[in-house]
What does this fold into?
Amino acid sequence: MNESSRSQPEEGAEPSIPLEIFREVVEQAALAISITDAHAHILYCNPAFQRVTGYSTAEIVGRNESVLSYKVTPKLVYESLWAQILRQRAWNGLLVNRRKDGSRYLAELTITPVVGDSGKTSHYLGMHRDVTEVHRLERQVQNQKAMIESVVDAAPVAIVMLDERERVVLDNQEYKKLIGELGQEPAATLLGALHADLGEEFEQGRLTGRGFTGREVRHVGRSRKARWFACSGSWIEEQDGSADAFYEPVRHQYLLLVIQDITALKEQQEAIRVNALRAVLAEQERIQALRETLFGAIYQLQAPFNMLAAAVRMLERQPGGSVADSLSASLAEALDKGNATLDTLRACIPSQSDENITPVDLNAMLKDLLRLFTPRLLADGITVEWQPAGLPLVSGRPTRLATLFKALLENAIEAIHDNRGGRRELKVSTATKPDWVEVVIEDSGPGIPEEWRYKVFEPFFTTKGADRQHIGMGLCSAQDVLTSHGGLIELADAPAGGCRARVQLPTT
Ligand code: FAD
It folds into this structure.
């Protein structure tokens, strides 16, 4: 029999290890090991035990394990320890221990009863290690976590962290308030809007870890009140803490979303913008009214002056005579003075202000105008259907375009107002066509008879009674504005009755 076959135990036989080896294992073990009698009196301790406790074998053997107690561990812990080991079951737990020098340490202890042939516990095996530092680090991490959580919770903005499947893994009080107010998972709604807004950039950001800041998202909830949120996102990577990922790190990516409710700010900005528009339009209206009045006066005066000029020409063709000559001279003088007065009036007509051509957001403009008309619409009980489409910007003069749409909206509202007893509906919609954008304003008023559809664009033509302050320049001016922008206006019957004004403006 050779050496290797001799060391192999026979099949089914217990491998025999010399007792000396067991002793050496215990002696050299890194764990503090002690063996006690059934009353916890120490019979043996290994060198690691001596290192951890500071007691030598001579000092500790024969003493009770309770010599290690710092007397701060609750009595209940010892009671449960003893209850467990007396039932011949192993016990594992944490005890506050005292070293020989009086310093304390946290011991993670396992006590295993050693049961003899008689079925009684003859000894206890105690194994413990100093876990003070591990516990300190664990507590530090827990404290930091608690501190971060309370800072996040106290933040005046909503904070939410989402995992790769966009499930909420952490949120704060402000975010919870949003859940209550929006009546659904706000992160899902806002992420949908952010995906649409950022497009490719969102996925690119996920891959490169580049976040985004201050993206504004509009949300209309069940109350139909629009709310605005400024969203910033940061991609955060976490290393998997599971055993599987110990040697082969697995990373998880989270999106930290910071959501700030900017509704109040937006409303304030909107109010400032609408007020500025109101002021500009009022000034424009004043100038327009002056222009229309002066144009109207000149137009009215021109007729008698034309008659006067005709009379002067007739008199000049008559045979000479002192009466006729002097009458002709007087009339000619009156005509010259009259024409000079007309020229003075013409010079008084304020010119249209020179406005630069800029990119115009028609949807925003129409929305602001509808806001401007809100008190009047409410007073008249008119319901508004606002259907904006995604529009490109158009190049134009903003104030002139606003005046044009204001005039069209005013006409529509007045037409609905006149239609007493009928439907009171105003529909404003926008659409994009290949080379132009379209704005359609439909009212539920009486409509415009077909024979007037072109006449209404003539100066001084009005379908409204003389009791109102209309001299019939509104649509004429509207057409002027459109002509100067290369656009078109067309009036027709609205599908449900009333008038439909369709405005087209080129996008190129
Ligand atoms: P004690 O009066 O000794 O005990 C408190 C309570 O524990 C009692 O009310 C009683 O319910 C129970 N109890 C104590 N002794 C017995 C017993 N013999 N039979 C039944 N119930 C009993 N303690 C430490 O603080 N640190 C250690 O590292 C440690 N290691 C141990 C290792 C082993 C192997 C064993 C068996 C025990 C160990 N103990 C240790 C427990 C220790 O023996 C004491 O029970 C403990 O320290 C409490 O001591 P005390 O003097 O404060 O109170």
Notes: Residues 462 and 472 are 4 Å apart (CA to CA). The pocket of flavin-adenine dinucleotide is lined by residues 34, 36, 39-40, 64-66, 68-69, 71, 73, 75, 78-79, 82, 86, 95, 97, 107, 109, 111, 124, 126, 128 (CB under 6 Å). The first strand starts at residue 32 and ends at 37. The chain is about 45% helix and 25% strand.
